Amino acid sequence: MTSVGEVLISIYPEYAAAIFRGEKTVELRRRIPGLKSGTKMWIYATRPVGAILGYAFVGDVSKGPPNIMWEIFGDRAAVGREKFDSYFSEADVAVCITLTGISEGRPLSADGFKTVRSGFHPPQLFTRLSEKESNFLSQNVFPQDLSMTI
């Protein structure tokens, strides 16, 4: 595991797909996650997909008033202004996580991940991974490292 660690983050399937198509390079959050530049984020697509699909690295974490964050990051978030405004309607701060080194692998179901983390439930924000869990994901989502990097 690297010094900044690895995490697993839950993302709606349509946004996970947009990340792996290269259309979404900024992840939006209402809460400020404790993520540092260089953190490897494994991407779990929520149901109905229910699988870990690949990863991206955190490039930067920016925060500010939603209207300013829209001006800076809106074109990279894969959402329209109306949906952005709705998502941040009750928030004073918008958090924008820039994604780099995006790689899509072979989907690993939540049940498959339970073999290394029993009782696994997809996180609301994110969950930190142990070295054993990170290695398991690397071996099972990227067998023989046949990844497709964007």
How would you sum up this structure, described in words?
The chain is 25% helix and 34% strand. The protein is of the alpha+beta class and 150 residues long. The chain has a single domain (6-134), classed as Archaeosine Trna-guanine Transglycosylase, Chain: A, domain 4 (Roll). Strands 1, 2, 3, 4, 5, 6 and 7 form a 7-stranded mixed β-sheet that branches. The longest helix has 11 residues, at 131-141. The mean pLDDT is 93.
Strands, helices and their partners?
Blueprint lengths: L5 E6 L1 H8 L5 E4 L10 E6 L5 E14 L1 H8 L7 H7 L6 E16 H4 L12 E3 L2 H11 L6 E2 L1
List keywords for this structure.
34% strand; Archaeosine Trna-guanine Transglycosylase, Chain: A, domain 4; 5 helices; 150 residues; 7-stranded mixed beta sheet; alpha+beta; 7 strands
User: CATH top level?
Assistant: Mainly Beta
**Structural shape:** globular
CATH topology title: Archaeosine Trna-guanine Transglycosylase, Chain: A, domain 4
**Count of the domains:** 1
Number of helical regions: 5
| SS-derived structural category | alpha+beta
CATH level-two architecture:
Roll
Secondary structure: helix percent: 25-40%
Distance between the termini: 22 Å
| Succession of helices and strands | EHEEEHHEHEHE
The pLDDT mean sits at 93
Low-confidence stretches: none
Compute the number of strand runs.
7
What amount of the residues lies in strands? Answer: 25-35%
Spatial extent as radius of gyration: 15 Å
Question: In summary, what is this structure?
Answer:
Helices cover 25% and strands 34% of the residues.
